[in-house]
């Protein structure tokens, strides 16, 4: 792991449930230190009228598991700015966390939390 260079990944967190959230998490991955740094943007309460959007900066760590199909696990934390579209215009800051367990292709399962809303999702690598 120490011989690898810094690289970027773009992960989609998506649920098929109405009222759930989705996001894209873009991370710089440093395999030598196991650190993750990046940002997220997405929506919470999707499928509802006037669903809020958010942007977040986040940092954390990942680990190689060497266990079955889940070869990487990671988690990031940060702060999100949640914005409401018209007619309820406004923004607020909320805690943000995300975690995932993926295979070598960066496909698997994860969750993310914005404020009090937590969403279990499928995770997939975006080009």
UniProtKB/TrEMBL annotation:
Domain of life assignment: Bacteria
Domain DUF1842: 6-113
Alphabetized Pfam families for the sequence: DUF1842 (PF08896)
InterPro entries: DUF1842
Name of the protein in its database record: DUF1842 domain-containing protein
Classification of source organism: Bacteria, Pseudomonadati, Pseudomonadota, Gammaproteobacteria, Alteromonadales
